[in-house]
Amino acid sequence: MVNTSLVSDEIANKKSWVLKFTLILNIAVSVLKIITGLFTGLLNLVADGIHSGLDSVSNYIGIHVIRISKKPADENYPYGYSRFETAGVMAICIFLGIAFVEIVHLAIERIINPATISFGPLTFIVVAISIAINIFVAIYEKNKAKELESDFLEGDAEHTLSDVGISVSVLIGLILIKFGWMIFDPVITGIIALFIFRSFWKNFTGAIATLCDAAVVPEDEIKTFVTSISGVKFCHAIRSRGRKDAFFMDIHIGVHSKMSIEAAHDNISHRVKLALRERYPKLICANIQIEPDNESSRNRVKSVFKEKDY
């Protein structure tokens, strides 16, 4: 069992603060857009407000899953709780999927049953303000995602970033509608739905990659690094899994065939672990199997559980 928390309190608190800050901004933008859209009859602005509201839901979910993810490993979760953050991304995907379907439905309904639309300069100001806030939030959250190596913040930043393109589309639509092109209200609404689907797909595929144990570090990169360490004759059966900010590694290393197990462990294996931890600070645990440097060992590339030795 890994006896330390995979996500430090300091990092978890930083992530939580980022989400609380962006939550306030997203709620303000969402309410502003929806109220303006309802008063003017602009469906695209209401849809844009709903999309911003999803950002708020995303922030709220994130605050809670990050709190859970910082819990230390225990008997029930010996690998820690870090993947709860990825589970949070999947929860966001559910909301994105529902929003996509509902907004497409509203757009089709508006095409079938056109509504009266009336708006003035204030509407343009509201959209311009929302664009400015969205750009700030997207850049801020994107930078924090890289700094804290957070899947959730990365996904949330992508979601917020899509708001920028959506709001620009809404602004263009307002201009066209002002000139009498009413059809652009449901058309822009449909474009917003496509942005939401794009955000859904990117978050979904990223979360699936983590949950299905996609490689975190390229195999060749690990092999090149480990074989450069003195005493390591070869390296194979390399696997890495987890999240960018908390991952695990399994490797087999070859040592001189005459070396004792004690010497191989204390002098080689332990040194490899220290080197890996220094090279990859987010590496939580490296399981290393020692093999003698001979032809039989070098030719083993798979697991005994897969009819070959891993």
From TrEMBL:
Gene Ontology molecular function, alphabetical: cadmium ion transmembrane transporter activity; ferrous iron transmembrane transporter activity; zinc efflux antiporter activity
Primary location recorded for the protein, binned into one broad class: membrane
Domain Cation efflux protein transmembrane: 21-211
GO cellular component labels: plasma membrane
Biological process according to GO: intracellular zinc ion homeostasis
Keyword tags: Membrane, Transmembrane, Transmembrane helix, Transport
Membrane-traversing stretches: 21-47, 87-107, 119-140, 170-197
Protein name: Uncharacterized protein
Origin species: Candidatus Sungbacteria bacterium RIFCSPLOWO2_12_FULL_41_11
Alphabetical list of NCBIfam families matching this protein: CDF (TIGR01297)
Protein origin, superkingdom: Bacteria
Family to which this protein belongs: Belongs to the cation diffusion facilitator (CDF) transporter (TC 2.A.4) family.
Keyword Amino-acid biosynthesis in record: no
Localization (cell): Membrane
Cross-referenced Gene3D superfamilies: Cation efflux protein transmembrane domain (1.20.1510.10), Cation efflux protein, cytoplasmic domain (3.30.70.1350)
Domain Cation efflux protein cytoplasmic: 220-292
Topology term for the membrane: Multi-pass membrane protein
